[in-house]
Design goal:
The radius of gyration is 22 Å and the shape is globular. It has eleven helices and ten strands. About 10% of the residues have low confidence. The chain folds into two domains: about 180 residues, D-Maltodextrin-Binding Protein, domain 2, CATH 3.40.190.10; about 140 residues, Periplasmic binding protein-like II (D-Maltodextrin-Binding Protein, domain 2, 3-Layer(aba) Sandwich). With about 325 residues, it is of the alpha/beta class. Strands 1, 2, 3, 4, 5, 6, 7, 8, 9 and 10 form a ten-stranded mixed β-sheet that branches.
Length: about 325
């Protein structure tokens, strides 16, 4: 399905509803029709409905459409980071949310984007930490990441950033692709599959609290497997886009203590063709409505001027975003 073509069709119908009465009135008055400024219609790629990208992306689309003059944004559920950037390559998306490691891979043409780089992809802003959560049933005998050898492990949807990062993490921990059975399903599918005990563990890389885990908890008790200090040091050293993080016990019901893990950043990115003024206004729309966004999802509370450039190379920032950041920091 071509997202932009379908959205454009809806947009053109709406425009006709506006234009036709105007033309009729023009015929009666014999004056030349005059149009001031058409709405800029944009598409935004999010992720699974039970992840964090989807509710937050829809909230972004709502505030831009309601409060930014002549901007209309439609958010779409996708398979996540890699899918979003591939859709952007095919010009089906103007904006997307994606993991920081996937964004860098796309710009550099490495990893999943080897031979098909997106060198002109631009970062609008860093959003919030995406926490690595290895989920198992509460009564599972898996108590550390090393015990994932020989197990059936949900790594994420096919071709997702979640799956790519899961493999990279396990490799640094000494577990190769041949050492376990990877399962490629989405968060939504993983809820029922884990409930039926079809798989032993699931890698969930998302803002916290993550809907998938909360929903699974309503059906069966679960645990989050911690990383050891040595594993965290290896991960942050081998994968520079990661940083150490403690998952608070209060994040999910049933957690007895904080969980030591790692995290990367979620980023809002844009196609290079968006004007500086438009991206500036998109930034303003988010920052001027953080109160509303924080009520939609807790991770919106992490969005701040202090985190705006966290993990973002200055070379990758959209000029419109850079101007907004410079002005608001004064």
């Amino acid at each position: 399905m071509n997202l932009k073509k379908n959205c454009l069709a809806v947009f053109l119908v709406l425009q006709l509803l506006v234009v036709l009465p105007s033309l009729a009135q023009t015929a009666e008055s014999a004056s030349t029709p005059h149009f001031t400024q058409l709405v800029k219609y944009l598409t935004l790629g999010t992720g699974s409905m039970s992840g964090t990208y989807f509710p937050l992306g829809n909230a972004f689309a709502n505030i831009w459409t309601l409060y930014s003059k002549n901007i209309s944004v439609m958010a779409h559920s996708t398979q996540g980071s890699i899918d979003n950037l591939n859709l952007m390559r095919r010009r089906e998306l103007n904006l997307a949310i994606a993991q920081s490691d996937i964004v860098v891979s796309a710009i550099r043409g490495s990893g999943a984007f080897s031979g098909r780089a997106l060198p002109d992809l631009k970062v609008v802003m860093a959003l919030y930490p995406e926490v690595i959560q290895v989920v198992v049933m509460a009564d599972s005998d898996i108590v550390n990441v090393g015990q994932l050898r020989g197990r059936r492990v949900v790594v994420g949807a096919p071709g997702s950033g979640n799956s790519k990062t899961a493999f990279e993490l396990l490799e640094v921990c000494g577990i190769g692709a041949e050492d376990f059975e990877p399962v490629y399903i989405s968060y939504d599918e993983a809820i029922q599959a884990m409930e039926r005990r079809e798989y032993d563990a699931a890698f969930i890389i998302a803002g916290i609290p993550t809907t998938m885990i909360s929903e699974l908890q309503k059906r069966r008790p679960v645990r989050i497997v911690p990383f050891t200090q040595s594993e965290i040091e290896s991960l942050t050293g081998g994968l520079p886009y990661l940083s150490a993080l403690s998952l608070p016990a209060a994040t999910y019901s049933g957690l007895d203590a904080e969980v030591k893990t790692v995290a990367l950043m979620a980023m809002l990115v844009a196609e290079p063709g968006l004007s500086d003024d438009l991206v500036y206004r998109l930034c303003a729309g988010i920052y001027d409505n953080l109160g509303y966004l924080g009520k939609v999802h807790e991770r919106a509370r992490d969005i701040s001027l202090e985190n705006f450039m966290l993990g973002v190379s200055a070379d990758y920032v959209h000029p419109g975003a850079a101007r907004f950041y410079a002005e608001r920091r004064r």
